[in-house]
Amino acid sequence: MKTYHLKTEQAIPISIEEAWDFFSSPLNLSKITPDGMQFKITSDYTPETKMYAGMLITYIISPFLGLKMNWMTEITHVKEGEYFVDEQRFGPYALWHHQHHFKTIEGGVLMTDILDYAIPYGAIGRLANAILVEKQVKQIFDYRVGAIERLFGTVI
Q1: Is the dihedral angle over the CA atoms 118, 139, 100, 26 positive or is it negative?
Q2: What domain of life does the UniProt record list for this protein's source (predicted)?
């Protein structure tokens, strides 16, 4: 199984407490996901719900052509104020391991996302990644950068 890797970093002009409060709430994920994905959390969480190790989050997404898919991730590791990890339990990927790291820097917080993923179906999956998936994953993370800048501003 071929795995793919993406790492992004973004400086955000807010405190580590504000960053953790926002990003550790599953319901805020829809605020930084492209509208075209028709992303909807189907788990029953309130805005006060914060991530914890073992938490399962279910979604419906439409990654392309209006095709709706169910997706389930588990929050496998949490160190409050520093990082959390989500891993796919059911969904479109053969592997999805996404680390979210937060570090205080001058003027705010450095947020680092480290994603390792794999596509099922062998050679067909590798071709799909080359043609569509890799570009789409990158576009999602690029969209997130813009959404976070609109929500919080940029660190100069």
Answers
A1: negative
A2: Bacteria
Full domain range(s) for residue 111: 3-152
Number of domains in the chain: 1
Mean pLDDT score across all residues of the chain: 94
Q: Is 117 exposed, middle or buried (0-12, 13-18, 19+ CB in 10 A)?
A: buried
72 CB-contact burial (10 Å; exposed 0-12 / middle 13-18 / buried 19+)? middle
On the 0-12 / 13-18 / 19+ scale of CB atoms within 10 A, 154 is: middle
pLDDT, tens only, 63-122: 777 789 999 999 999 999 999 999 999 999 999 999 999 999 999 999 999 999 999 999
Query: What CATH number should be reported for the domain holding residue 14?
Result: 3.30.530.20
Q: 0.90 cut: is pTM over it?
A: yes
CA distance 6 to 138: 8
